[in-house]
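Final report, closing paragraph on structural work. Over the funding period we assembled a curated collection of sequence-structure pairs, and we close with a single example.
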Amino acid sequence: MAQLNMVQAINGALASEMRRDDRVVVLGEDVGKVGGVFRVTEGLYDAFGEDRVIDTPLAEGGIIGTAIGMALYGLRPVPEIQFADFIFPAFDQIVSE
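Its predicted structure, as stored:
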């Protein structure tokens, strides 16, 4: 069994699911060409394109709200919030709306 660090394991799982299911979409700040702040999405933009690996503005509430809307329409969004402390601006989308 291959030994992977957490970043490699998450990247591999995302790539595997994106190959398996065209409805899986990754969105977040710098997840596209940059590959995310921790490089978790590195290579996914090149492999799956800008329609499935979407760079978003710096707006956590918008990222989560968009992901919820995508899910309501049958997509399988994977939103990335860069740091745990940044989730608080999105709480209204998660809890109230």
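Residues 27 and 54 are 5 Å apart (CA to CA). The radius of gyration is 13 Å. We thank the funder for supporting this effort.
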